[in-house]
Amino acid sequence: MVVDLRNLRAVTIASDEKTAWVQAGATLGQLYHTLAQKSRTLAFTAGVCPTVGIGGHISGGGYGMMSRKHSLAADNVVDARVMNSDGQILNRRSMGEDLFWAIRGGGGTSFGIVLAFKVNLVTVPETVTVFNITRTSEQNATQLVHRWQYIADNIDDNLLLRLFLRSVTSPVTGNRTIAATFTSLYLGGVQDLLPLMKQQFPELGLVEQDCTEMSWIESVLYFADLQNKPLDVLLDTAPPSRQYFKGKSDYVQDPIPVDGLQGIWRFMHEEDDMGSRLELSPYGGVLNSFSESETPFPHRSGNIFIIEYGVLYWHYSKGDQKHINWIRRLYSYMATYVSKNPRAAYINYRDLDLGMNNYSAATSYEQARVGFGG
Questions:
Q1: What pTM, to 2 d.p., does this model score?
Q2: Which residue has the higher pLDDT, 232 or 357?
Q3: Is the pLDDT of residue 369 over 70?
Q4: What is the pLDDT of residues 11-36, one digit of tens each?
Q5: pLDDT, tens digit (0-9, with 9 covering 90-100), for 252-308
Q6: CB-based contacts of 72, cutoff 8 Å, min separation 6
Q7: List 251, 313, 331, 349, catalytic entry
Q8: How far, in Å, CA of 67 to CA of 257, rounded?
Q9: Do residues 152 and 256 touch, judged by C-beta distance below 8 A?
Q10: Which of 117, 161, 159, 174 is nearest to 305 (CA)?
């Protein structure tokens, strides 16, 4: 059964308490927009896609550009309103700590209908710094990606250094090359960021001209690729495109060696130009301060980063099965380099290859327990 909660989208901010009640049908963009009306320095730690719904995002964890400093969205939930099968609306006290534990990071389904979450807000500096730097294979991308694995989860908690990998046509050689884009948010000014990067990741060669200072809410627009748009664009609820997409995910606990990266490049060059993308998001920081059983979200200390594999195709037909087969072959290749026993995945990156409910009969516990790493 699917319940449509889109009309439950009220957001109520208590600035003095640094908390907010957010109904489950609100989007991240609506929450961010409401916060921006109240304060320049109050924020919420959650994802970068403004059309994503709050209810599902928090229920599955809720990773974002401030997660190394302020953890997951689910880790900042302090109360909730849940309707049970009897139609009763429960809060944290009346539902009990077991149910309150269960709705924060493991998917949240089957326990009732979450109507709203009460969340702690975080204080951010008036000025943050962003940068977006791309290096190709000809510019030492392979070595930079390899080095990134050793620093991304250990660098200053105020810095989240995300990495996007694509196969593109080189404008210089005309051949396919890997483009590695380092996309980052630093909770502070550029004059503090530059010496930090020079000390911990000098190989990237970051300079002041690469960086832009802005407010936190401006960074929300920046990472959503909505820069120079009015703030009200965050209230839009329709996704920007309707492309067909297949995604999978993995957690990496040991750095992938150079020859392993080169194997990934070979796979990526098989796909159409810009047709595939790998997103590498670092862990570490305050994420490591939670035990793996403190919430249903188990991916804590020991994980360097998460990979989201993605492939786009423009229409659905039998011929597009090749794109799905491609990502499955890449996923099989990666088994050597990712978490094992179990091979973990992020539940918010839904992957039907890991299992689906039966259509015509009940799904057993044994079927349902496989996948998503907890």
A1: 0.94
A2: 232
A3: no
A4: 999 999 999 999 999 999 999 999 99
A5: 999 999 999 999 999 999 988 778 999 999 999 999 999 999 999 999 999 999 999
A6: 45, 61, 62, 63, 105, 287, 297
A7: 349
A8: 26
A9: no
A10: 161
- SS3 for the chain, per residue? CCCCCCCCCCEEEECCCCEEEEECCCEHHHHHHHHHHHCCCEECCCCCCCCCEHHHHHHCCCCCCCHHHHCCCHHHEEEEEEECCCCCEECHHHHCHHHHHHCCCCCCCCCCEEEEEEEECEECCCCEEEEEEEEEHHHCHHHHHHHHHHHCCCCCCCEEEEEEEEEEECCCCCCEEEEEEEEEEECCCHHHHHHHHHHHCHHHCCCHHHEEEECHHHHHHHHCCCCCCCHHHHHCCCCCCCCEEEEEEEEECCCCCHHHHHHHHHHHHHCCCCCEEEEEEECCHHHHHCCCCCCCCCCCCCCCEEEEEEEEECCCCHHHHHHHHHHHHHHHHHHHHCCCCCCCCCCCCCCHHHCCCCCCCCCCHHHHCCCCCC
**If pLDDT is split at 50, 70 and 90, which confidence band does 318 have?**
low
**Is there a catalytic annotation at residue 333?**
no
User: Residues with Cβ < 8 Å from 115, sequence gap 6 or more?
Assistant: 5, 8, 23, 24, 80, 81, 82, 83, 89
Q: Would you give the distance in Å from CA 310 to the centre of its chain?
A: 13
Q: Is the peptide bond before 239 cis (omega within 30 degrees of 0)?
A: no
- With both helix axes pointing from N to C terminus, report the angle between 216-223 and 28-38 in degrees, rounded to the nearest 10: 160
Write phi, then psi, for 95 (nearest 5 degrees).
-80, -25
Sole residue written with tokens 């188990």? 298
Binning pLDDT at 50, 70 and 90, where does residue 242 land?
Answer: low
CA 184 to chain CA centroid, Å, is 13
CA pair distance 31, 14, nearest whole angstrom: 13
**34, two tokens:** 């409401």
DSSP β-bridge partners for residue 12? 21
Return the amino acid letter for 151.
Answer: I
